[in-house]
Amino acid sequence: TEERLRERFETTVEHDQRVEPRDWMPEGYRKTLVRQIAQHAHSEIIGMQPEGNWLTRAPSLRRKAILLAKVQDEAGHGLYLYSAAETLGVDRSELTEKLVERRQKYSSIFNYPTLTFADIGVIGWLVDGAAIVNQVPLCRCSYGPYARAMIRICKEESFHQRQGYELLLTMMNGSERQRRDVRDAVDRWWWPSLMMFGPPDGDSPNTQQSMAWGIKRHTNDQLRQKFVDMTVPQAEVLGVELPDSGLAYNPERGHYDFSEPDWDEFHRVLAGEGPCNTQRVERRRAAHEEGAWVREAAAAHAAKQAERGRD
Ligand code: FAQ
Q: Which residues form a coiled coil (predicted)?
């Protein structure tokens, strides 16, 4: 019967239908999803730190309220994603342990520092922009719970992106100092944003199988190109220059040509040697440990409720 179940799985994927938690699935499919969804969830949670860094120093009440809401949205995204991972038979606490022990990854992008308030705008514009390009196709992921979580997340992400762009437009219409901060932040975040899409296709061990399973819908390089094509005109409207002398429209390809990111830097960041890796993981570990009493209280409450239910 395993053969029959496998056939059914393959037909489901081939016909672009959704695989649900109750369905049989190959072990490799399950593992790949746990890896990707856990990394994605960890990214949302770790991703609260670079922006959270500016909550107490936002320049106005309005900017503070906006930033607070965005960071809270990210916590929510992390929770939807941990819930999606849990439908695959893993436990959220087990995933958190793996994160703080550095046995699971999170996006390279969150290992860079936020030096001025302009970084908040640039994260919204470039980092959320890249996240949208990567995540919209995931709304059609073959695994139902992940695809459904992505629909909701993408709606909020596109709002985040506009928030960042609006902040940058305001700063670019401000003082010389504000314009300088925006340009400096764009220079620092551009290349790391391109790296968010993962290694070039030739060095991406997972892409082929993930595409065959309908988990990924496009390759890393395809999505990176899409992001560049989308972002260059936005940079022009904003009046900032992207830090790549190789950037030029190629009419034959119908796309922008651009230079190769520094993949050595990418691998160093993945190996834990980015500017903020240690700080990010240690902060997460401390928050987890400081929250132990909440988990204990919740477990005690649940146990008491269960006991009452038995009477
Ligand atoms: N950082 O074979 P591939 C956000 C790893 S957006 C770290 O190409 P795959 C929103 C990869 O895991 C950010 N590691 O892998 C937000 C694999 O290692 P492994 C989160 C990376 O999975 C905005 C190895 O390299 N978004 O949070 C990265 O097919 C603002 C080989 O790579 C997602 O996670 C990287 N950049 O493709 C929040 C989207 N790239 O696991 C707060 C879902 C690659 O074998 C503020 N994920 N690696 O040890 C994906 O689409 C895919 O997993 C890719 C990687 C495209 C990231």
A: none
Question: How much distance in Å is there from the Cα of 283 to the middle of ligand 1?
Answer: 21
Q: What is the reported pTM?
A: 0.97
pLDDT band per the 50, 70, 90 thresholds, residue 1: confident
Q: Of all protein residues, whose CA lies closest to atom 40 belonging to ligand 1?
A: 198
- Residue 233: predicted pLDDT: 98
DSSP string of the chain? -HHHHHHHHHHHHHTTPPB-TTS---HHHHHHHHHHHHHHHHHHHHTHHHHHTTGGG-SSHHHHHHHHHHHHHHHHHHHHHHHHHHTTT--HHHHHHHHHTTSS---GGGGS---STHHHHHIIIIIHHHHHHHHTGGGG-SBHHHHHHHHHHHHHHHHHHHHHHHHHHHHHTS-HHHHHHHHHHHHHHHHHHHHTT-S-GGG-TTHHHHHHTTS-SS-HHHHHHHHHHHHHHHHHHHT---S-TT-EEETTTTEEE-PPP-HHHHHHIIIIISTTHHHHHHHHHHHHHHTHHHHHHHHHHHHHHHHHHH-
Q: What is the pLDDT of residues 190-245, one digit of tens each?
A: 999 999 999 999 999 999 999 999 999 999 999 999 999 999 999 999 999 999 99
Cα(107) to centroid of ligand 1, in Å? Answer: 5
